Amino acid sequence: QLHLVQSGGNLVQAGESLRLSCAASGFYLATYNIAWFRQTPGKEREWVACISSLNINGRTQYEEGVSGRFTISRDSEATTVYLQMTNLEPGDTGTYYCAAEAAAWYDCSGHESSYSLWGQGTQVTVSA
């Protein structure tokens, strides 16, 4: 079975950094588009960042509010995708989910419906 296993959530203060991990179990991430989403209570889940499959270009994209602060990357063995978050703000608080789009031959996107495999979620809380 294919799974995404997340880790790295924590409680931090504003201005601090945190790295989230999304590890693949049962497959390699090289040929998948991978995205990070986040959700806060009472709000819809929103897209944060994505990295395209290595089949095409491995391009990264970011939601405007996190661009320049967050970095999405894939490790050299293509088993784990990371979301490095710096200069965290209270507005970054939420449950973060990674998601995978299988056998992608086009750029990643922020559309939830594109992703069929989801991690279990990890909580990030940023205090003021």
Can you tell me about this structure?
This protein has strands at residues 3-7, 11-13, 18-25, 33-39, 46-51, 60-62, 70-74, 80-85, 94-101, 117-118, 122-127. Helix content is 0%, strand content 46%. Strands 2, 4, 5, 6, 9, 10 and 11 form a 7-stranded mixed β-sheet that branches. The chain is globular, with a radius of gyration of 14 Å. It has 128 residues and is mainly β. The chain contains no helices and 11 strands. A hairpin with a 5-residue loop joins strand 7 (70-74) and strand 8. The N and C termini lie far apart (40 Å). The mean pLDDT is 94.
* Cα end-to-end separation: 40 Å
Q: Helix amount, in percent?
A: under 10%
Give the averaged pLDDT, no decimals.
94
The helix-strand sequence is: EEEEEEEEEEE
Structural class: mainly beta
Rg from Cα: 14 Å
Low-confidence stretches: none
SS element count, helices: 0
Largest sheet: 7 strands, mixed
The portion of residues forming beta strands comes to: over 45%
Q: What spatial form do the alpha-carbon principal axes imply?
A: globular
Q: What is the total tally of β strands?
A: 11
Q: What does the secondary structure layout of this molecule look like, with pairings?
A:
Elements: E1 3-7, E2 11-13, E3 18-25, E4 33-39, E5 46-51, E6 60-62, E7 70-74, E8 80-85, E9 94-101, E10 117-118, E11 122-127
Parallel strand pairs: 2-11
Antiparallel strand pairs: 1-3, 3-8, 4-5, 4-9, 5-6, 7-8, 9-10, 9-11
